[in-house]
Amino acid sequence: MSAPTRILLADDHALVRSGLRMILDNEPDLLVVAEAANGFDAVTALAEENTIDLVILDIAMPRMTGIQAAREITRGNYPVRILMLSMYDNEQYFFESLKAGASGYVLKSVADRDLIEACRATMRGESFLYPGAVTALVRDYLQLARQGSNLPETILTPREEEVLKLIAEGYSAREIAAELVISAKTVDRHRANILQKLGLRDRLDLTRYAIRAGLIEP
């Protein structure tokens, strides 16, 4: 059995943190190892503890908000995933969270239902968005298309685009190799080249790019 995902939980309400911790620690694959009452303390704790895998940030916190903390964590290139937690079903917060580097957005009102799956999806390199957020994301994409915004020009080869599309659709390296009749090592080499060319970090970034480039549907 693999080691549990080690979590840093940041929320300015101790009672909320206690409830969330109870939900998370009740799962064998999740473990809260650190807590913070604001974004600044979360970033500081992350700098001091190098075994954290996932940071869960409340959006509205004193001193430094969750979004500000997410930006700091992203700029610091910490090897962690970020999940935002909010009581607000707010499109601006949602989009700012994604831009700050978060992999998902969970509403506190349904945290008891969604938080566990959000953590697991995030650690798989997938995004987790509540239904209203998905609607907002699609609407924003369509609005850009109606305004005549050009899709980004690609610097990828046709083969790299094929590999990127399959990665974004969730295929494993072995499955991509079988689909394209190439070796798994060649798939890995293509993936590394794609990440380097586009200046991206992981599967989630590649999926976002594939959506913007029109390779897969949002």
UniProtKB/TrEMBL annotation:
<dbReference type="InterPro" id="IPR016032">
    <property type="entry name" value="Sig_transdc_resp-reg_C-effctor"/>
</dbReference>
<feature type="modified residue" description="4-aspartylphosphate">
    <location>
        <position position="58"/>
    </location>
</feature>
<keyword id="KW-0805">Transcription regulation</keyword>
<keyword id="KW-0238">DNA-binding</keyword>
<feature type="domain" description="HTH luxR-type">
    <location>
        <begin position="149"/>
        <end position="214"/>
    </location>
</feature>
<dbReference type="InterPro" id="IPR058245">
    <property type="entry name" value="NreC/VraR/RcsB-like_REC"/>
</dbReference>
<dbReference type="Pfam" id="PF00196">
    <property type="entry name" value="GerE"/>
</dbReference>
<dbReference type="InterPro" id="IPR039420">
    <property type="entry name" value="WalR-like"/>
</dbReference>
<keyword id="KW-0597">Phosphoprotein</keyword>
<dbReference type="InterPro" id="IPR011006">
    <property type="entry name" value="CheY-like_superfamily"/>
</dbReference>
<dbReference type="InterPro" id="IPR001789">
    <property type="entry name" value="Sig_transdc_resp-reg_receiver"/>
</dbReference>
<keyword id="KW-0804">Transcription</keyword>
<dbReference type="Pfam" id="PF00072">
    <property type="entry name" value="Response_reg"/>
</dbReference>
<feature type="domain" description="Response regulatory">
    <location>
        <begin position="6"/>
        <end position="123"/>
    </location>
</feature>
<dbReference type="InterPro" id="IPR000792">
    <property type="entry name" value="Tscrpt_reg_LuxR_C"/>
</dbReference>
<protein>
    <submittedName>
        <fullName>Response regulator</fullName>
    </submittedName>
</protein>
